[in-house]
Amino acid sequence: MMDELHNKAVCNESLEGNILNLKSNISIPIDSCNNYTNHTELYIEPTLLYDVPVSIILLLSMFYGTISVMAVVGNALVIWIVTSSRRMHNVTNLYIANLALADIVIGLFSIPFQFQAALLQRWNLPALMCPFCPFVQVLSVNVSIFTLTAIAIDRHRAILSPLSAIPSKFRAKMSIAAIWAIAFVLATPMAIALRVQFIEYGDRDGRKLVKPFCYNVRLPERTMLFYRLTLLFVQYLVPVVIITVVYMRMALRLWGSHAPGNAQDSRDANLMRNKKKHEGVDSKYGGVGNAYYTESNEKIMNGVGFE
Which of 78, 82, 139, 156 could cysteine-pair with 100, CB 3.0–4.6 Å? Predict the structure, then answer.
């Protein structure tokens, strides 16, 4: 029994000695450990961190590219038709050309660039494009909505007050200039607030990753919240109310009216009745006149004077 305990003690001592020798042989510089730790804490995001298949990227690029090209070409044709023909120079077509111009702007400077940020969840474009693209987007949307509202108001005036509300191209041009000025002012906070910012976050392996975002860094969050609510009010609520009211009034005015030249049963019946009366009177007096004329001629031919 004593021999077994002695053997176990000897084995334990030899095992501890081997472990100590192993520890003494392992030497890792502390500086290298610190460098490794710092390297893993700040790890720049790889290009393909968001695993989007290349086929999806190509498909969406072709889709958005086609939309952009069609928007630019189609609206450019609209502007060319309106400007090249003098017969097209009226108030309504001026507003339509303004709509086309707003669509060209958003097709050139917003559609080709905004989708990549939504797809990849990071901003890969130059830093200048970060405030510029959202600014152009808000500007174009404002111009389009305000122009549609102006068209509705112009049609409302033309239908409800056709004589007093004479359309004027000068007034339409001034309205278009005011639309662009107001839209520019409302879009300016986007150009002020947004900048490219590098945001850190951790991945599943515990590494700190950094990726660029187009983010609000200039204005307080409460100010941006108020600005977004203002855009909701100006871009949606007010135009919807105005357009709904004016088109409802136009519909009520035109509901029971008839366009000139269209058939109306009561009018046509009165015209036919009056026509028959005139034909009857003409035939009656025409017959009496013919009889008197014939009798007079016979008396003249026979040498008989009038009684």
Answer: 78
For 103, the 3-state DSSP assignment is: helix
Token output for 202: 């951790």
The pLDDT confidence band at residue 279, using thresholds 50, 70 and 90, is low
Whether the CB-CB separation of 186 and 178 falls below 8 Å is answered with: no
Q: Cβ distance 149 to 240 under 8 Å?
A: no
Residues forming a β-bridge with 198: 212
What does the buried/exposed string (b/e) look like for 192-220 if buried means 16 or more CB atoms within 10 Å of the residue's CB? ebbebeeeeeeeeeeeebebbbbebeebe
* Distance, CA of 271 to chain centre: 53
Least confident piece of the model among 143-147, 167-171, 271-275:
271-275
Q: Which residues pair with 89 in a beta bridge?
A: none
Cα gap 269→288, rounded to integer Å:
29
Give the integer Cα–Cα distance in Å for 302 and 297. 9
